[in-house]
Every structure is written in structure tokens, then in C-alpha cells.
Amino acid sequence: MTEKPTVAFAKFAAPKKGSVIVLAPEGGQLGEAAAAADPAGILPRIFTTAEFKGKLAASIEALAPQGTDYDRLAVIGTGKPDALNEQGWLQIGGAAAAAAKNATEVTVIADIAGLEPSARDIANIGLGILLRAYSFDKYKTKKDENGGKPSRNKQVRFTIQCADPNAAKKAFAAASAVADGVYLARDLVNEPANVLGPVEFAGRAEELAQLGIEIEVLTEKEMRRLGMGALLGVAQGSVRPPRLVVMRWNGGKGKQKPVAFVGKGVVFDTGGISIKPAGGMEDMKGDMAGAAAVVGLMHALAARKARVNAVGLIGLVENMPDGNAQRPGDIVTSMSGQTIEVINTDAEGRLMLADVLWYCKEEYKPQFMVNLATLTGAIIVALGNAHAGLFSNDDTLAERLTAAGLATGEKVWRMPLGSEYDKLIDTKNADMKNTGGRNAGSITAAQFLKRFVDETPWAHLDVAGTAMASPSSDINQSWASGFGVRLLDRLVADHYEG
Ligand code: BES
Ligand code: MN
Ligand code: ZN
Q1: What distance in angstroms lies between residue 238's CA and the mean position of ligand 2's atoms?
Q2: What is the distance between the alpha carbons of residues 496 and 15, in angstroms, rounded to a whole number?
Q3: Which of 53, 111, 211, 470 is most solvent-facing, going by the fewest CB within 10 Å?
Q4: Is the predicted pLDDT of residue 371 greater than 60, yes or no?
Q5: To the nearest whole number, what is the mean pLDDT of the chain?
Q6: How far apart are CA 185 and CA 161, in angstroms?
Q7: How far apart are CA 88 and CA 124, in angstroms?
Q8: Contact 323, 415 (CB under 8 A)
Q9: pLDDT tens sequence across 450-468
């Protein structure tokens, strides 16, 4: 993978080498420090000839400006300064990382005419740089189009010049921990399934022990003893055995009940005996994006020493067709005791989550449970790539998630639950069936999960449209977005710490 760039902070000073990036608001006026970096005064002319308007995250560049020691000067637009919000700062950072191109030494002069950015704003430029700079190139062995080795071999050093570098550095420490969590989630989702099976995935989660997270890995035998017939039914068609990983971060007060995060980790979803069509099936290596987000989140919470007790649980299985695979019509008994008729073996995520949610609730009696899952194609039909589906039995939790989504840009949209939908998964052969027919596919999936959470405040995020294959943006160029890490880190930071 690309080396994560370093981001340092410094006071305003004339840059001597590398690439220099200045910021300009809509209209193009340069701040004092920005103008000082352009001694020959070439920028105003470039603005005119290139019709640069200073729109948010737009950029323009000049090579080796006269009278300077550095190689390249780029300008990033900030839009209207009073309209700049958190995402705007992230986008500016993203645009700066893009404008840096192949430079290894980059100075960003965060001086904007008519604006006094806060330490947090500056830190968000840094976070935007990190998020944009990520790329998954570990399997590229050939030289890239610039004749260089794959970009992972060089580390880019960013220095952000600002009014109060010490304050910015402090604010950036937490942001950098969150970026590490996003990188981890993206790496896991991008990794192909031949490399990352359930056992290997569990191994990656175990590495979080280095951060002070307690890890427990349940094997097939232990899950059988617990009666997890729904999860095990999905796993039985694969030669690779399932795992259930529990990650515990105890950063809060001793007896505070934990907050809980649960992830769907289907390392590959062929559909099983109800096999998927071949076109695009390769994307199903990402069917563990919910679990990856939980691992990334736990990393972020521990790395920034969040003052919260949090548990993360991920169910890791592979959904394969073989001689031992479960069949449509099979009836399995979940850990809750409820029986399920398997109508479609491709509706496997809900089967696995049924047991993990129940186990989480019984074992940890959490304040709330939020699960993330690439659960249904139907959520992509409903919401596209711009929002994850949110389903919840608790209005407060739903509102907090919605607010965290708007703040971070990892947006969620609440969908309905109700008895009319719930009855669509009744069946005469068992307590419920695992599909509800063609209509309202994302809602019936959520109704199914709801039968395994009892009274626990709970939210289900269907991230099938947001965690993978979403269009690239100013802050993400990777197939896997890491969706959920920043959202849930914010939920915790705003409401459940201290
Ligand atoms: N993993 C898929 C959902 C999915 C689809 C994720 C596209 C990401 C992109 C899930 O296990 C699945 O197969 N769902 C079925 C449910 C159906 C059989 C009721 C679906 O959405 O078609
Ligand atoms: Mn499936
Ligand atoms: Zn799936």
C-alpha cells in the first residue's frame, strides 16, 4: 500500500524547496503569506488567463516560478470562506494531496485572505491529505507511467504552515489516528479473498492487541457449543472455517456499559447454492466491509485513546457452494432459539448477523448496538452511493447517527421499519424465513435483524452502496472507501466519551 504521508505543522515562512501550495478564496485574493510565496507576482496573471475562480477544491499550477527556490506552485480554491465547513477543509486537503503529484516535499500555506482557520480546520486539511493519498497498489510490480517504482516506495512529507502550529498538531493527533483506522478498513476491503479468508482476517484483527485492545477469537467448535446454527449454516459450504472476533477497548470508566459495533464479514459471497451471476461477482470480495469498518473503528478509538468502553464483534465466514453447502429449504436454529427457513442461500449476511447480534447483546448488555453490513443490493437501488441505509428501533440513536453523518460526510438516510414489513418474513415451516420477496428488500432484511436484538437500542447500517465501488471523490480514490470509521468515531466522540 502507499506509504501514509507525514503531515507536520510550522509557522509561516518563505518555502525553499519542493512543491508549494497556497489557498485562494472565491475571487482569488491572496493572503499575506500566500502572496509572499509568489514574489514575482505571477498568480494573479495565471488566475486571469486560466479563468481560475477559487471554487472549492479547484486547483491550478505553475512550474518553477521566477525568483523562488522551489519547483512548483499550486493554488487550491477554498470557495466562499464563510461557507467553509468541515467537509470543505477535508476537500481542500484532498485537493492539496492531488496537486502535490509526484513531489516528496510539499508545503501548504494555510493562509486565506479574510479568514482565521481554527486548529481543527487546519487538522482537517491534514486529514483530507491522508485520506486522498491512500492507494491500494501492493500487488503492482511494474513501473508506473512516470517511470518510477509504484508510489508506495516513496513517502511524501507535507508541512502545513499556519498561525498556531502547536494547536494544529494537537488537533491533528486524533485525526491521524482516525485516518489510520480508515486506511486499515480500506486495506482489508481491497484485499482479495484468496489472501484474506476468515482465519487471516481474524489474524489482522488480532494485531490490534498492540494498541491495548483485548482480543478473543471464537472458533467453529466454540460457536457450535453456543448454538450459532445460523452463522454455521452459512460457513459450512466453505473449506475455510469461520471465526467470530471480539475486540474490547476499555478506555472508559470501569463499570460503564460498553457501546457495541457489529460487522458483517463475509470474506467472499458467491451466493452459495443460490449462486450469483458471474458479472461483477469479483466485487463480493468486499462483502466484509462492515467487519472491516468495525476493525478500523476499534483501531481509531484505541489509537486516540477514546474515553469509552467499546466492543467490536465481527462474524467471519465465506459463502460458497459445495457438496456440504446448505440448501434452499434448510431450516437452521439460531443461538436465540428461533428457527429460520433458508429460502435463498444468498441472503447469508442476515443469517450470520442474527447470531453475532444475539451473542453481543447476551454477553455484553451494551448501551446500544450498531451493526454495519453490505447487506442488500436493494439499498443501492434505493439510495445509490451517497447515503447508507439506516434502520433503527431507537430515535435518539438514529438522530445521533444522522448528525454524525452530516458532520463527517459519511451520510446515512433513515428507512422505515414496521409490522407490515415484518410479517413478510413469516413462514409456515419455521419461526421466520430469510427473504421477504422482491419488494422492500432492504427493509425486510432489517426486520430480520431486528428479531435478534430484543429491546437493545440498535441501528443497522446497510453500507452495500457506500463501502465499496462508490465514485471517487476529493478524499477517496480507492475502490474501498472505509465508510463507517469516521462516522462511528464521531458518534462516539460527540456522545459517549467521558
Ligand atoms: N452481499 C450481498 C449484497 C450486496 C450486493 C452487497 C451488491 C454489495 C453489492 C448480499 O449477501 C446479498 O446477496 N443480498 C441479496 C439478498 C436477496 C437474496 C434477498 C441481494 O441483495 O440480492
Ligand atoms: Mn449474498
Ligand atoms: Zn453478502
Answers
A1: 14
A2: 42
A3: 53
A4: yes
A5: 96
A6: 30
A7: 9
A8: no
A9: 999 999 999 999 999 999 9
Rounded to 10 deg, the angle between the 349-364 and 441-450 helix axes is 30
266 Cα: distance to centroid of ligand 1 (angstroms): 11
Q: Which residues, 6+ apart, have CB-to-CB distance to 277 below 8 Å? A: none
Q: Which three cell numbers stand for residue 55?
A: 471554487
Q: In the predicted model, is pLDDT for residue 289 greater than 90?
A: yes
Of all residues in the chain, what percent carry a pLDDT higher than 70?
97
Q: Where are the alpha helices (DSSP H) in 309-440?
A: 349-364, 378-383, 395-408, 419-422
Tens-place pLDDT, residues 94-109: 999 999 988 999 999 9
Q: Please, which residues bridge with residue 473 across strands?
A: 476
With cut-offs at 50, 70 and 90, classify the pLDDT of residue 442: very high
For residue 1, what pLDDT is reported?
Answer: 55
**Ligand 2: distance of its center to the CA of 445 in Å?**
11
CB 92 within 8 A of CB 121: no
Tens-place pLDDT, residues 168-225: 999 999 999 999 999 999 999 999 999 999 999 999 999 999 999 999 999 999 999 9
- Ligand 1 site, residue 344, Cβ cutoff 6 A: yes
List, for residues 20-77, the tens digit of each pLDDT value: 999 999 988 899 999 999 988 988 888 888 889 999 999 998 887 788 889 999 999 9
Cell numbers found for residue 180: 489510520
CA distances from residue 485 to 13, 186, 405 in whole angstroms, order as listed: 35, 10, 11
| Per-residue burial over 299-335, b = 16 or more CB atoms within 10 Å of its CB, e = otherwise | bbbbbbebebbbbbbbbbbbbbbeeebbeeebbbbbb
Q: How far apart are CA 127 and CA 115, in angstroms?
A: 20
Location of C-alpha cell 478473543: 216
Closest CA to 167 of 117, 92, 108: 117
The pTM assigned to this predicted structure is: 0.97
Rounded distance between C-alpha atoms, residue 197 and residue 193, angstroms: 6
Mutate-to-test residue for ligand 1 from 371, 376, 443, highest number of ligand atoms within 8 A of CB: 376
3-state per-residue secondary structure call for 401-414: HHHHHHHHCCCEEE
pLDDT tens by residue, 261-278 = 999 999 999 999 999 999
Atom from ligand 1 closest to the CA of residue 374: 6
Kindly provide the residue ranges of all beta strands, DSSP E only, lying in 70-127, ordered along the sequence: 72-77, 105-109
Statement: residue 145 has pLDDT above 70? no
